[in-house]
């Protein structure tokens, strides 16, 4: 569909245009064959899906149902055949930035921008949106005994400049790379169904170990598909 064939640069700028931080983005696509154009006026995709994991799973499931493709031996809702890696962009959730006593005296401006430089209402909506999806997806996979097929890597302990979304200095970029690389050495964690908080799962090793296992599964699946005489996949998507 030519009118949906947007430049990747426009897509990236649009989905990063967080309200109050960065400006909304406009671009236009054109169907050269018909001359028709389509205008896009967009802001950060996180406004509707700050954690797009569940949306992605739904889209894949929908595609399998619509296309009637037999990519699952047990049907499109057989989650044992899904491998999901969810990479968070970090948050400052663990930092005690606000208290009910403080918020009780806030007016409109304080909710939008605190004296410490944070945006309380935006931070709260963003975190709750992402955390709820992580909780729901994690519980879904656990309930279906496929918890090892879902890997969430997220740092909720960001502080200072690293916790901002609009500081693109060389120093901050290098710090974020350091934090990201450090996450590989951390123990795999999974949401506790009672508390809703992530807890370490030592027996599954580090995030790097889990990624290696995922990579092997995908590699084995690709080899199986390529050698299948019928051209049908055997397991994971």
Automatic annotation (TrEMBL):
Gene Ontology biological process terms, A to Z? defense response; lipid metabolic process
**Family membership noted in the UniProt record:** Belongs to the patatin family.
Key word Lipid metabolism present in the record? yes
Q: What does this protein do?
A: Possesses non-specific lipolytic acyl hydrolase (LAH) activity. Hydrolyzes phospholipids as well as galactolipids. May play a role in disease resistance.
Q: Which keywords does this chain's UniProt record carry?
A: Lipid metabolism, Plant defense
* InterPro entries found in the cross-reference section: Acyl_Trfase/lysoPLipase, PNPLA_dom
Please name the source species. Answer: Urochloa decumbens
What residue stretches are annotated with the PNPLA domain? 1-57
What is the protein named? Answer: PNPLA domain-containing protein
GO terms (molecular function) for this protein are: hydrolase activity
Q: Where is this motif: DGA/G?
A: 44-46
Q: What is the top-level taxon of the source organism?
A: Eukaryota
């Amino acid at each position: 569909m030519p009118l949906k064939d947007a430049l990747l640069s426009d897509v990236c700028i649009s989905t990063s245009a967080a309200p109050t931080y960065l400006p909304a983005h406009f671009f236009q696509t054109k169907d050269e064959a018909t001359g028709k154009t389509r205008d896009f006026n967009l802001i950060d995709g996180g406004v509707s899906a700050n954690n797009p994991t569940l949306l992605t799973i739904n889209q894949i499931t929908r595609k399998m149902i619509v296309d009637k493709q037999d990519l699952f031996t047990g049907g499109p809702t057989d989650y044992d055949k899904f491998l999901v890696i969810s990479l968070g962009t970090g948050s400052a959730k663990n930092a005690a930035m606000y208290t009910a006593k403080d918020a009780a005296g806030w007016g409109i401006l304080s909710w939008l921008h605190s004296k410490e430089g944070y945006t309380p209402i935006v931070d709260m909506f963003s975190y709750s949106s992402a955390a709820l999806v992580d909780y729901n997806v994690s519980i879904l996979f656990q309930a279906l005994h496929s918890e090892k097929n879902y890997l969430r890597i997220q740092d909720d302990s960001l502080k200072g400049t690293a916790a901002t979304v609009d500081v693109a200095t060389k120093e901050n970029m290098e710090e974020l790379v350091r934090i990201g690389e450090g996450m590989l050495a951390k123990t795999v964690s999974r949401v506790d169904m009672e508390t809703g908080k992530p807890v370490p799962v030592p027996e599954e090793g580090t995030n790097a170990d889990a990624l290696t296992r995922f990579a092997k599964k995908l590699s084995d699946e690709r080899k199986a598909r390529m050698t299948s005489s019928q051209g049908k996949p055997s397991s994971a998507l």
